[in-house]
Automatic annotation (TrEMBL):
This is Xanthine phosphoribosyltransferase. It catalyses: XMP + diphosphate = xanthine + 5-phospho-alpha-D-ribose 1-diphosphate. Keywords: Cytoplasm, Glycosyltransferase, Purine salvage, Transferase. The gene is xpt. Xanthine binds at L20, N27, K155. Its EC number is 2.4.2.22. It comes from Faecalicoccus pleomorphus.
Length: 189
């Protein structure tokens, strides 16, 4: 997605060979016009597929997921990193972040998904795919299925893409970074 690649090049900051900072439009401040285009892009790519719900992870997955939900006319569930006391019957899973080198728990209300649900999973970054694996676990605990994956920024040099492809999922990443070197981004084809 050209507009997103330009935003990453102009407004992103390469922290090191493996971390890209995009706080000015995605992870802290949100560029709503860009998010709207991101929602349209996901809706176009997945137009022939059947979904009943979008699932994402708080907090940075919410903006792209909500804009996609608006365009696709689907509700958005965001998986939570702490359990609210108001949850009645939650499902839990452990997740591990290589980027942050720590474990965390993800949870959701079991009744949010049922066996008839066909889920589009959306997230801001794909690195090693561990967040996706944990989300997949929660969706499966509810006996629902995942029918597509939409990623805003994929770091193709990390393991996530391959892991998801090996599971046979339809994955669409809007910007695919092959390499970050000498303060330059090399895009994957
Ligand atoms: P993985 O799921 O693909 O294995 O990734 P990992 O656990 O390593 O990612 C942990 C967190 O770091 C996630 O955000 C993810 O979006 C973010 N992340 C991964 N790589 C990058 C990067 O290069 N740049 C930035 N800015 N973030 C990255 P999170 O902890 O869930 O936080 P939030 O932003 O959703 O609140
Ligand atoms: Na993030
Ligand atoms: Na995320």
């Amino acid at each position: 997605m050209k507009l997103l690649q330009e935003a990453i090049e102009k407004r992103g900051e390469i922290i090191n060979d493996s971390i890209l900072k995009v706080d000015s439009f995605l992870n802290h401040q949100i560029d709503c016009a860009l998010m709207e285009q991101i929602g349209i892009e996901f809706a176009n790519y997945f137009k022939d597929k059947h979904f009943t719900k979008i699932v994402t992870i708080e907090s940075s997955g919410i903006a792209p997921a909500v804009f996609a939900g608006l365009k696709m006319n689907l509700p958005v569930i965001f998986l939570k990193k702490s359990e609210p006391s108001t949850m009645k019957d939650p499902v839990y899973t452990e997740a591990f972040s290589f980027t942050k080198n720590r474990k965390y728990t993800l949870c959701m209300e079991r009744s949010c998904l049922n066996p008839e649900d066909s889920v589009l999973f959306i997230d801001d970054f794909l690195a090693n795919g561990q967040a996706f694996i944990s989300a997949e676990d929660l969706v499966h605990q509810c006996n629902a299925k995942i029918n597509g994956i939409g990623i805003v920024i994929e770091k193709s040099f990390q393991k996530g893409r391959q892991l998801i492809e090996e599971k046979g999922y339809d994955i669409y990443s809007l910007a695919r970074i092959q390499e970050m070197k000498d303060n330059k981004i090399v895009w994957a084809k």
